[in-house]
Specification:
The protein has 302 residues and is an alpha/beta fold. The protein has ten helices and 15 strands. The radius of gyration is 24 Å and the shape is elongated. It holds the Pfam family ABC_tran. This is ATP-binding cassette domain-containing protein.
Length: 302
């Protein structure tokens, strides 16, 4: 039986007459890397702020570690929502010392978290001289001070260059190996696909999908893509068997599972049609995400 450490029940936040999120029922398993995806304005940050205790719901409830949300849970919770709150005139070490003092923690913990985020070598450097990626890592170091069981990161790769994004990905994976459950929101879908174990997709304030990444990808469509200099002949041959065949960018796109490739090659060969390329393609995370979000737009128009 799965151990759910984060749960929301019919969580709703209303601003004036509009709901930012509505009847969201979240369930995050212990040890997961949970990716929260959604377009801008979908309600991701609002939802994360409720988990962090920064907002109170209009209705519904948040449960952490099997209990209704309470202030005591802050000791098991690390958060980086929006930009980290840092003092530019202080060093990395001094910034963390301020937070450690407020939390009543020993200073020995500061060196440990700086090591975790690979900032130990620059602990005496003023934060004003830090790159955006270094500031993000320092913000995460602050979130790690209290040995959290749950880490909430809102768009941690926002504004980072490719090297910074890779470093952040590796860091998140390392936290998971250390037994920390990570909830991360992002709009970089290709990056999310490399690190998350579970997904929640929110659109127009509603949770539209929740489950494992593997299950979500399995919902995708498969197709066979082929190229041939005899495109018209190949199309006429195959269309009776695959009525939804599409010609696009000098390729034949055939909605069919990979197992159909062998029979397609045989049919083309028997009719002396030269095949220059054939491949089986599965919808990726970005394609499935956009299809789900676009269906919301169509529903509103209808």
């Amino acid at each position: 039986m799965m151990n759910v450490i984060v749960q929301t029940v019919n969580l709703t936040k209303r601003y004036k007459k509009q709901n930012a999120i509505e009847n969201v029922n979240l369930a995050i398993e212990d040890g997961a890397i949970y990716g929260l995806l959604g377009p801008n304005g979908a309600g991701k940050s609002t939802l994360l702020k409720h988990l962090a205790g920064l907002l109170r719901p209009t209705q519904g409830q948040v449960f952490l570690f099997g209990e209704p949300w309470q202030r005591k849970h802050l000791w098991q919770l690390g958060t980086l929502i929006e930009m980290p709150s840092l003092y530019g005139h202080l060093t990395a070490y001094e910034n963390l010392a301020v937070h450690a003092h407020l939390l009543g923690l020993k200073k020995s913990r500061i060196s440990e978290v700086l090591e975790q985020v690979e900032l130990r070598d620059v602990e005496k450097k003023r934060v004003s001289a830090f790159s955006l990626g270094m500031k993000q890592r320092l913000g995460i170091a602050s979130a790690l001070l209290s040995h959290p069981r749950l880490l909430i990161l809102d768009e941690p790769t926002n504004g980072l260059d490719p090297a910074g994004i890779r470093e952040m990905r590796e860091m998140i994976q390392q936290f998971s190996r250390q037994g920390i459950t990570v909830v991360v929101s992002s709009h970089i879908l290709a990056e999310v696909a490399q690190i998350v174990t579970h997904l929640g997709i929110i659109s127009k304030g509603h949770l539209r999908y929740q489950g494992t990444l593997k299950e979500f990808i399995a919902h995708g469509r498969q197709r066979i893509e082929l190229e041939t200099p005899q495109m018209r002949q190949a199309e006429l041959l195959l269309r009776p068997h695959f009525p939804q065949l599409v010609v696009q960018d000098n390729k034949l796109l055939i909605p069919a599972p990979s197992e159909a490739a062998a029979s397609i090659v045989t049919a083309l060969t028997q009719h002396n049609i030269t095949l220059t390329h054939i491949d089986s393609v599965q919808d990726d995370l970005e394609t499935l995400f956009l299809r789900l979000v676009e269906s919301d737009k169509e529903r509103v128009v209808a």
